[in-house]
Amino acid sequence: MKLLVLGGTMFLSQYVAQFALDAGHQVTCAARGESGVAPQGSEFIFWDRNDPAPAELASRQYDAVIDVSRIPAHVRRATQELRADHWVFVSTISAYADLSHPGGTPADTKLLDPLESDGGQSTAESYGAMKVACEQLIGELHAPAAIIRPGLLIGPKDPTGRFSYWPEHAARSLADGLELLVPLAAEDPVQVLDARDLATWLIELAENKCTGTIDAVGPATSRREFITQIFEALEGEPRVHWADAALLHGQGVVPWSGEHSLPLWLPDPAVAGMLDRDHRPARQAGLRTRPLARTSLDTLQWLNGTDRARTGLSREEEAGVLENLAAAARGTSR
Description:
Strand 1 (2-6), helix 1 and strand 2 form a beta-alpha-beta unit. Helix 1 packs across helix 6 (195-207), helix 3 runs parallel beside helix 4 and helix 7 (223-233) crosses helix 10. By secondary structure, this protein is an alpha/beta fold. The longest helix has 19 residues, at 315-333. The chain has helices at residues 11-22, 55-58, 72-81, 124-141, 165-176, 195-207, 223-233, 245-250, 280-284, 292-303, 315-333, and strands at residues 2-6, 26-31, 43-46, 61-62, 64-67, 83-84, 87-90, 145-150, 152-154, 180-183, 189-190, 192-194, 212-216, 221-222, 240-243, 254-256, 261-263. The radius of gyration is 21 Å and the shape is globular.
């Protein structure tokens, strides 16, 4: 298969390019190359997608294109100027207008209104709305096509740090003998997908010229089981402090990501279904997922060899919150 990867230099698209090469495909990566390098063995063609497609791309016929763009103008240009028998577009579950209901599917969840541009002021909602516009362009300008909406992607090379926070802090809790601070929502769902599993599946969709719209999500698990599996991967006995949301807020701890956060914590009912989409359609379409323990160990190994910025509480901040919560509990007990 002659595969064109629009990207190929960072995280998911880099895995796509590498795994396609490993499978024996002829791979071209088209990107600016500012976020990383294309895998050895692929052909790299410089393309700033604000500009017309280079003649060496536009003159060729590809068996498939895999595109991860979030910019509608870039998708429009690609679909108009490139020639391919099949298109796989990687969108996002952030394209949905209502993520309050667990177990949702593309068929029963309304999309955001499409947005052509956010003027460079990227927000979570504008990101999703621009992906909707990209999807519509794919549908209008290219057929056949597959639209894939991933949930939270994890694994080595993940630039967000939202998942890697947990194996890193769990490992440090075992090393220093302190508890791991976890939000008390022990039965709330956590749903993640190793980017390497998604990359493998995207290539298979391209190979088989599959069509349709599918959420790319793994099976959801409870937060308790999520934490348990991470400690099992580390072969350690978990020491966990389950903290009430009000107490965490009182310590300035915030949900999801960013400074002073506990990543993957979503106490807002408006997004109760964000980490609990129906994974069965993707599984039935061939998506296979590896054990969380394997992803945890691989991610931790990668973290130990990188200076990439993390998200969430530092271990020192976490220890301070634990100390403050313990002091408050002692004061209450008196």
